[in-house]
Amino acid sequence: MNSLTDNALMLQVKAGDLNKMGLLFERYHRELFGFLYHMCGRSDASEDMVQTVFYRMLKYRHTFTGDGAFRTWMYHLARNVLIDLAQQNKRSTHHYDLVEYAEKIAGGMAADEALHKEQELATLQNALAKLSDEYREVLVLSRYQELKYEEIARILNTTEGAVKVRVHRALTELKKIYLSIEHER
């Protein structure tokens, strides 16, 4: 039963077998949390949004055709949830939970090294938060979620070439911001 494809599971959910949604949740809730967390920077809000995305999957299951990849459809729903949140909050600032990352980084490292890594991560997260939503989104999808450009193009409803250009520009902008933050320290 676990060998069913994502599309097959979602088609079963669409047909009324709502128990299959649990398998999809187990497969994707961490990945989805990572995407949402990198986009909004808040752990609590990301957890809530994951729940909202899965709720919307159930609510809008009739829109899933099975023609494209389930993941693409899931990310479309996640993007809509982010847009709704942004409209509600009118562009809130990003508050990254660096303590969570620091604990992961510190495991087994010398205190100096852990502090240095924590500072680098804080600088990177700060720089990422200063990127435009458009640039942050393509970097999160390509670098953190490890999606292929082809899949990102389907999610963003654009061409693969446009995604490549956007990622390149986003990385260039991220580097500028990162270096300016480093220079300020």
Gyration radius, rounded: 18 Å
Total of helices: 9
Distance between the amino and carboxyl termini: 54 Å
The largest sheet is:
none
CATH superfamily of the largest domain: Winged helix-like DNA-binding domain superfamily/Winged helix DNA-binding domain
**Main structural class:** mainly alpha
Q: At the first level of CATH, what is the class of the largest domain?
A: Mainly Alpha
Q: Write the CATH architecture name of the largest domain.
A: Orthogonal Bundle
Order of helices and strands: HHHHHHHHH
Low-confidence parts lasting 5 or more residues at pLDDT below 50? Answer: 91-96
**Outline type:** elongated
Number of strands: 0
As a percent range, the share of helical residues equals over 70%
Q: CATH topology of the largest domain, what is it called?
A: Arc Repressor Mutant, subunit A
Tally of distinct domains: 2
Strand percentage: under 5%
